[in-house]
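seq:
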Amino acid sequence: MFSLFKRVPSMSTADLQKEGAKEWTVLDVRTPAEYRSGHIAYAKNVPLNKVAGFTQKGDKKLAVICQSGMRSKQAAKILSKKGFDVVNVRGGMNQWRGTTKGGK
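struct:
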């Protein structure tokens, strides 16, 4: 019964910044407008409403981020159910202290 409520692991923005693109494929699940306003340089924009259709080449682990951590938590649960090795980034872009990139 408890396996139905499997918790998705999480990590801090500081941990993501340390490990970076070498270890993770970062999915930014905010809207395209939010993404354009500033995002992690190596993040891919896959809005929450498109996450169910996400496919990935390779075997990097997924780190999912949004503005505050709520949408990314939902996305991480969806991706986990699809069999991906995924973590939620706690605090989202609100807590990100690294550099960001604007535009596409």
